[in-house]
Amino acid sequence: MNGKTIVITGASAGIGAALATLCESKGANVVPVARSLPIAADMTKRADVERVRDVAIERFGKVDVWVNNVGRGIARPILALTDEDVDEMIAVNVKSALYGMQAIVPHFQARGDGHVINVSSVLGRLPLAPIRSAYCAAKAALDMLTAILRTQLAQSHPNIHVSLIVPGVVATDFGKHARGGSPDFKLPDGVPFQTADEVAAVIAEVIEHPVAERFTQTR
Q1: Other residues' Cβ atoms within 10 Å of the Cβ of residue 5
Q2: Which of 18, 67, 167, 174 stands 20 to 30 A from 205 (CA)?
Q3: Which residues make Cβ contacts (< 8 Å) with residue 17, sequence separation at least 6?
Q4: Cβ burial, residue 43 (10 Å; 0-12/13-18/19+)
Q5: Neighbouring-strand partners of residue 213
Q6: What is the pLDDT of residue 127?
Q7: Which residues, in sequence order, are bridge partners of residue 118?
Q8: Domain count, the chain
Q9: Following DSSP, what letter does each residue of 3-16 receive, concatenated?
């Protein structure tokens, strides 16, 4: 990882902040992005995403890894969802990553290598939290976009990696910031919460040893 330039979105707290700290400790040139950081951007706006890319390339000459980590949850059952609820879940959890992929992949294609990492959720695979409804659906959409991009690039640019990270339930402020508030959420007996540092360690391993998909929690 030493010397790699790594863009990490959603880096103000939680998994993104933990990953930024870890990558810096391993010698990477980290470009942490969030609305509240020195490199401030709203990743649901295409122009902001492209500006982040341009700033990173201007500063370090290239980008090696782009981590799409922006996300927001919701506490709303399906039959209560409003247009605004769905629009925000898609904008934050899908469009932010889509804009990131569209902004950085041409740079990777020109260089002949690079690595896109999209951070999803196990809730995009399993209906474990119905109250998260539109968030689960948005993460499922992100999973499919990731798989399709990986398949397309494998033919023409085999040295460009596209990885999906699938965290379990992580002990962050994610629930507190969910749209509509956050109901109490209890895990089944014997299933622990993960820490942001534990998830960051898995992502760092994938940066160093790319794989198509990695679950961060195995029990």
Answers
A1: 18
A2: 174
A3: 11, 32, 196
A4: buried
A5: 164
A6: 86
A7: 68, 164
A8: 1
A9: T-EEEEES-SSHHH
HSE, CB side, 13 Å, CA atoms: give it for residue 10.
25
The 3-state DSSP composition of the chain as helix, strand, coil percent (nearest 5) reads 45, 15, 40
Quickly state the pLDDT bin for 159 (edges 50, 70, 90): very high
Opening angle at CA 106, ends 104 and 111, nearest 5: 100
CATH assignment of the domain containing 128: 3.40.50.720
Residues 6+ apart with CB under 8 A from 89: 72, 74, 134, 135, 137, 138, 179
Give 33's strand partners.
Answer: 9
Tell me the pLDDT band of 143, cut-offs 50, 70 and 90.
very high
Q: For residue 101, what are the domain limits?
A: 5-215
Residues 50-60: tens digit of each pLDDT: 999 999 999 99
